[in-house]
Structures are given as C-alpha cells and as structure tokens.
Amino acid sequence: MSFTWKSALEKLAEHRRIAEALGGPERVRRQHDQGRQTIRERIEAIAETFTEVGEFAGFGVRDASGAEVGRLSSSYVCGLATIDGRQVALGGEDFTVRAGAPQTYLDRYKGGMGGFVEDLAHSYRIPLVMFMEGIGGDVSAQDEVGHSYLVSSMSWKRSLDLLGEVPVLVGVLGSAAGGTAGRAVLSHFSVISSGSVMFAGGPPVVRRALGQEVDKHELGGAAMHTSVSGAIDNLVADEDEAIRQIRTVLGYLPQNVWELPPRGDRTDPVDRSCDAILDIIPENRRRPYRMRDAMAEVVDRDSFFEMGPEWGRSVITAFARIDGIPVGLIGNNPMHLAGALDASAAEKQIRFTDLCSTFHLPIVHFVDVPGFMVGPEAERGGVVRWGMRAIQALVEAEVPVVTIHVRKAYGMAVSATSDPDDLGLRIAWPSAEWGDMPIEGGVEAGFRREIEKADDPERFRREVEERLLAASDPWKTVEAFGMEMMIDPRETRRVAAQFLNASLNGMRTRLGPREKPWSMRP
Amino acid sequence: MNDVTAELTGSVWKVLVAEGARVEADEEIMILESMKMEIPVVAPLAGTVAALLVAEGDPVDAGTPLARIAE
To answer: What digits encode the pLDDT tens for the residues A390-443?
Structure first.
C-alpha cells in the first residue's frame, strides 16, 4: 500500500489509543477500586509537562494456539517531564500490564536497570523521579524468550552511578517486589504510601522457602519499612502526599552535582532573634525537650522537612534553609534513648551525610548526645561498627559543617558531630556540657580502687566528682580555645547565616562529583 | 476508662499522684527515668486516678500500663 499522510497519521492515532488504554478498562478499574491511580494519572498529577518516549512500545497478546489476538502497550511509561519548572526524567511501571513486570519483550528497557529513563537522567544530568509498582521478575518472560536468562547479564551500574550524579527520588505506590524493590532503594529519598508493600519475595515465595504463612503487610508493609527496616525513608498517607513530598525534597536539591542547590527566597530576616530557644531547652538538665523545635526556631520559617522520622529515632535528619541556602540538619533527639547513637541512628545519619555531601548542602549539626548507645541490644546491632562509619561519613563529607553544641557531648559519638580536619567550627550555647565521659559513671569507673581503699569511700567519691565537675565547667574549655565559640543561643540564626553565606565562596569552587578518599567502608 | 502506658523502656522514678486524686489534662502524674533522663508522664484527659499500676522503682517497657484515669 502506498504511503499517504492521511493513512500514516491515522495509524499513529490508532497506536496512541492502544497506549492510552494501558492494560484495558477492567484492569484500570481494579487499580482504582484498590485505591490506586494508574501510572498515567500519577504522571499527570506530578508533572506540568510530559513528553513521552516509547509510547508505542508494546507486545502481541496471543491465544492458546499462539495466534496474536491483540496488542497491549508495554508495562512501563516514561519520558521527559517538568516538575515545578524543573526538567526531570520521569517514569513508572504500569501495574495494569503484566503487573508491571520488566520489559523483557523489548529490544531496549524503558525503566528499571539500565532503562531509557535512566539513560535520559544520566545523559542530560537531570533528576530521576520514579513511581515504583511492580512484581519484579516474571517467569513467563522465560516462556516468551525461549530460554532462561541470567539476571547478571544485565547491569545495575547505571542505576548506581546515577546516585553520584543527579537526585533520584522514588515513590512506592502499591506492591514493589524483587527487582522493583531493589530499584526503589537505589534512591536518595523514597516514600511509601500507606497500604503499599515492598519485599524481596512475597508471601508465596516465603511459603515455599520457609513453610511460613505471612500476611503481605506484616512481611513488607509501609509502616514496617519506615520504622523498623528503614529501607524506605518516609511514610505518606496517600498518593497525593507522596507527590507533595517528592516535590518538596526536589526543591532542596540541584539538577545535578555540578550545580549548587537552588537558593530559596530570603524573606525571613537573618537577624531574627531565636527567643523561643530559652523556653525549649529546660533548665533541668535531666528533662528532655523537642530538638525539632529548637532546629525549626533557627532555620527559615516553614523550611524544615524531616527525612526518616520514624526510624533511627535517636537522631533527626532534615532538610531546611537558612537565609534561603539549602542545608542538611542533623540533631540528636533527647526524647529517644536520651539521644544516644545506636546502629540504626548511625545508619540514618550516614545516608543523610552522604546525601548532603553529594548535593552540596552544608551540614548544621545540633549536638545533645550522651555517647554511643550501650547495652546488649545495641551491641548486637553493631553500634560500634555503625558508629565508626558515621564518623567516617562526616570525615569524608565535602561540605561545610556548622556544629551547635546544645547540651550533652560525650564520648565517641561526638566525633560524628564536627570536622576537625576541615574548619571544625563549633558554636556552644551556655547550656552545653562535654567531656570524655559523663562524670557520674566516669568517676566510679576511673577511680574504683581509690574509692574502695578510702576511709570514707562515699565522701572520697563525692570529692573527686566535685573536683572534676569544677574542671568540666565549659567556660574553661572555651578559654583554652578548645571550643571555637560560645554564644547567646538567640544569636544562632544570625551567626550561622553569616558563616553559611561566607562558605558559599568555597562551595562554588568545589562543584562536581565527590572524590572518594576512602575506598573501603570499615 | 483510659490507660496511660509507658512510651519507652526505663523505670518509674516518681509517682506524683495518689489513687483517687483528681487530675487535669496534661498534668504530670509520674516521672519515668531512662538513660539518666526524667521523662514526664501526663494524664491524657481530666479525670480521677482510678488505679496506679506501678510503684516507684518498677522497671517498665514501651507499652507497660502505668495508670488508669476515669473520666
């Protein structure tokens, strides 16, 4: 048949109808009935513009005899989008087509490991935003392909390399299993909607492997992953909130590591006095307080956004802005384990430190830490190894660090709060106290023999404690320049803003990917 | 009847009210001790202390019932 424009454009329109139908009206209805949107609806909700790539990729649907009875569009939708005026690579599985299984039937993957959407982010150096909903590997692919393939014939390198190049932001909306789950965690920031699940293998696989019956929410539910495993950062109530949080985090980050993060507006005056701090920090040193409130008082109003609030709870990691400059906040949480750093808190802190270092966000650290967490549970969790890795992450970080000493600072954990190899700028509040170990336990441990031998052990112990307490007066350290600054806490915002603004001079000259001086994680 | 439970692992340091006492919402009824910190426990509503389920010195875990407040 000879070429005519009319027939060619009709054919294009016909293909478009197939693409828009996704997996067919019944499967789309089921998706909606289960409270979930289709991938096209999610893309529509998050993006101002969307130019689709691979719209017409698909496959033939065959009947039992092998004859083709129809065509379905591929199980992935992707393309170039703008989100809040920013160009991004955007994609997601189409769960209504083969439950979002990998596109083994195509010459080129659209998403997943090494797919077009990853190449787009890499080549143009733009953020990658993905909605994850898929069953991962699919045995029927083997049937089609005619032989079994090794997953190791495909490479994860692109997915991993992207983490050092551009922001990768993910929303798990539905079930993410196997390869889809794996892809989801290779991200800087991830959310999971309530009712969604994620696992290496689902209940049928668990049944076969372990003979165990397990409910999919017990196995890999959204609440568990955001509060126990920490595999996903934030729990969101629904798909709208997932989109809101992804857009919010994107706002703190640059398009790629070769740029500084976008400066926000500067409407909150830098010389605003942080008066509320005097009410937030109790005068009774044994009373906890909300560290989040102290942090929020210092940073630009309404700029505080927490990442991972429900796990690793003895540390708080949050994005914020100070005088419009995007920063990463790390703060110990005195309401949980008295702020002691355990393995999960250390792990959370490490990921966040790496993220800030990658995208050029200065770190502002609010210190109130009694030490690494102690006790059998902490030791079994590997607190010593994870705590040392947290120190390594800060030593390796290539961003300015401003350390604010709020209250306690004892022991090894303090090494994870500032950067003595770089500027080592530490700003104490008068409420701060520090030392190698807290006096009470320290005296009993360090002077045990002398205490036992004394005529009046109780009085001897008290005398030693009093002497050490006098020497532990923070002003003595300040006078020895063992602490860089002591300020009225109400000045914190003004002082921090001065230093952060000045640090931009250096940051502008140190863009691009991180160098990695340490190739080995201990 | 409202159960007040411990939010963390520690021990009961001070019990501030007696059974039968009237309390306001958010009034401190106990202080727990954990990791050398004093953690206040408050009444979730105004009412009467129907029962005290722990005594000073008792160890508690997250979820341990501490007291019952009747409206």
So the answer is: 999 999 999 999 999 999 999 999 999 999 999 999 999 999 999 877 776 778
B31 to chain A: nearest residue by CA?
A287
Domain A13-250, CATH homologous superfamily name and number: 2-enoyl-CoA Hydratase; Chain A, domain 1 (3.90.226.10)
Alpha helices in A125-202 (DSSP H): 139-145, 157-162, 178-185
Chain Cα centroid distance, residue A119: 22
Structure tokens at A514: 């991180």
Q: What angle do CA A113, A116, A121 make, to 5 degrees?
A: 90
DSSP state of A205: H
CATH code, B2-70: 2.40.50.100
Q: Helices A239-250 and A39-46, interaxial angle, to 10°?
A: 40
A228: Cβ contacts below 8 Å, ≥ 6 apart: A311
Neighbouring residues of A269: CB distance < 8 A, sequence distance ≥ 6: none
Are the C-beta atoms of residues B11 and B57 closer than 8 Å to each other?
yes
CATH of A277-435+474-507, one of 3.40.50.1260, 3.40.630.30, 3.10.310.10, 3.90.226.10: 3.90.226.10
Closest residue in B to A373 (Cα–Cα): B35
Distance from CA of A167 to the nearest CA of B (A): 36
Taking the C-alpha atoms of residue A189 and residue A326, their distance in angstroms, rounded to an integer, is 16
C-beta of residue A390 within 8 angstroms of C-beta of residue A412: no
Tokens 């909130």 label which residue? Answer: A241
Q: pLDDT tens digits, residue range A318-328? A: 999 999 999 99
Take residue A177 and report the two structure tokens written for it.
Answer: 């299993």
Assess A444–B contact: CB distance below 8 Å, yes or no. no
Rg (CA), chain A: 27
ipTM of this predicted structure? 0.80
